[in-house]
Amino acid sequence: MMKSFKVMLCPNKEQQTRLFQFAGTARFAYNWTLNKEMTAFKNGEKFISNYDLRKEFTVLRNTQEYKWLQSISNNVTKQAIKDCCDAYTKFFEKQKRTKIKYTKKKLSHLARIGKTPTVYDMNGHPKFKSKRNGDFNFYQDTDKIQITSTHVKLEAIAQSRRRSRQKLNWIRLAEFGRIPVGVKYKNPRVSFDGLNWWVSVSIEFEPEQTEKDFTESLGIDLGIKDLAVRSDGKVYPNINRTKIIKFLKKRQRRLQRSISRKYEMSKKEGESYRKTCNIIKSEKLLLKIHHRLKNIRQNYRHQITSEIIRRKPNSIVLEDLNVQGMMSNKHLSKAVQEQGFYEFRRQIEYKAEWAGINVVIADRFYPSSKTCICCGRVKKDLKLSERIYRCECGNVIDRDLQAAINLRRYGEK
Asked: Is residue 229 packed enough to be buried (19+ CB in 10 Å), middle (13-18) or exposed (0-12)?
């Protein structure tokens, strides 16, 4: 079983410069590969293999025009080429080819030349990486990367072999002792999120076999009013209604309007918008607020999911929510997005796998909120505004708690 770790880096100015150079080289190799593959496809040629492209890129690397590539580790460009080839291959493997409505004359012509009337859905096609979109990441070789409790050593950060310059290869970690030491690392990646640099690695581990404390299932109902309601009555409130989140969102709105006004003021007649130093400072401050909001919500979800897993139930039952359909509602889309239902389910699934707990996903059309827990009657006309469920048998209960209890019974079956 794989377990991933992601820790923030604390590089100095020289190390930051080299990290940006590595990320830019990886982006260049990826875009160069994608351009080659797309050109070959348009010309009716075969798919160019990863091996052939790497040989061609090595020749390009030794030319005088692209001599600057030699200052970057060869493993960075090799993996970028491989990533692009894998993405391009997966795109065509998953394509659903649909027939086009052609005229009889066109169909007969295609049959004569041996072609089939098909079209490709370009949704999911690999795109060119852009510096403006924040595509700053690169790969590190598994044999070259070294990690201690306080530092990580990256390959070829220092261009000189002198011992005093070799210290640049060691970058300090923001969290000491977070990544296990002395194990085999897989798929090491270094990325930049607009503010900080991060290193992520994966390791293989065997989950601990522990005895389960409970023999019954645990149903969890997700919602907008409250993030989650457990079948035992425990309610996890919506963190987006707390004071700190409301304060940060208010600052976010004001800063966005301020940046918009600055753009309008800096624009001259007949020219495009200009990005001044004050705009750059304000955008960086806005990005910090974005990250803080994201981190608060993500930390809250981790606390909830970890608490649920620590109970060690026999199984955990979740419902298969149609998040895409919920996002189409303009009145609820923002609230649904802030709750992060998919992320909550993802955390429950992988943490339960580590703990050896079974996760059951209820059918999307299972009427968990509309089914009475006493008599089993289904109230088909239950509206979303009705937060209290009232049945003819006399049952009066919160609809979210009732949904969680029905989900628990669904899992026990």
From this structure: buried
What's the rounded Cα separation, in Å, for the pair 15 and 169?
A: 8
- Quick: pLDDT tens for 70-92: 999 999 999 999 999 999 888 88
* Token pair 């059918």 in the structure block, residue: 363
The Cα-based distances of 133 to 28, 136, 199, 226, 390 in angstroms read: 14, 9, 20, 34, 51
pLDDT of residue 215: 65
Q: Average the pLDDT over 318-324 and give the result.
A: 89
| Calpha distance 322→317 (Å, rounded) | 16
CB atoms within 10 A of CB 159: 10
Position 209, amino acid: Q
Residue boundaries of the structural domains of the chain = 2-204, 217-412
**Quick check: helix, strand or coil at residue 293?**
helix
Query: H-type helices in 158-271, by residue range?
Result: 243-266
Q: Are the C-beta atoms of residues 85 and 53 closer than 8 Å to each other?
A: yes
Q: Which pTM was predicted?
A: 0.82
Strands (E), 193-281: 197-204, 217-222, 226-230, 235-237
Conformational region of residue 88, where left means phi above 0, alpha means psi within -120 to 50, and beta covers everything else: alpha
